[in-house]
Amino acid sequence: MAESVLASSNQGPAKKAILDFVDGAITPGDDFVKVVDCIAAFDNDDALWLEQPLPPKFDIVFRKWGEQVKAHPALAQVQPYKGLLAHELLKHWALTSHTDGTLR
């Protein structure tokens, strides 16, 4: 079991600190966190989506929309496809999220 926990993360002090924190949070004791005090965190191959969850999701959606435009070129004239092709959606996201809008 231990080998599958954060399997794509390198062994080291950061991984140990994360595992120690989680162990303390789920084990009754001083560091235990009650269910009522928990929040959700989403894992994407050991990269948590806490700070900025939208870029990976945007990438998935935008790629799918791009495939749809290739299959049906008329979609390029209607929103949201038109905005995607003009990069307007990324510009809007960049302004509202304080990033450069680059999908990483």
Report on the architecture of this protein:
Helices cover 45% and strands 4% of the residues. The chain is mainly alpha-helical. The protein is elongated and about 60 Å long.
What's the SSE blueprint?
Elements: H1 13-26, E1 43-44, E2 47-48, H2 54-71, H3 81-85, H4 88-97
Antiparallel strand pairs: 1-2
| Radius of gyration computed on alpha carbons | 20 Å
Low-confidence stretches: 98-104
Q: Approximately what portion of the residues adopt beta-strand conformation?
A: under 5%
**Helix percent band:** 40-55%
Largest sheet, strands/sense/barrel: 2 strands, antiparallel
Derived from helix and strand composition plus strand pairing, the structural class reads mainly alpha
Mean pLDDT metric: 75
Distance between the termini: 31 Å
Order of helices and strands: HEEHHH
Counted by DSSP, the helix tally is 4
3D shape? elongated
Q: Which strand order do you get reading across the main beta sheet?
A: 1-2
User: How many extended strands?
Assistant: 2
Q: Tags for this entry?
A:
disordered C terminus; 104 residues; two-stranded antiparallel ribbon; 4 helices; mainly alpha; 45% helix
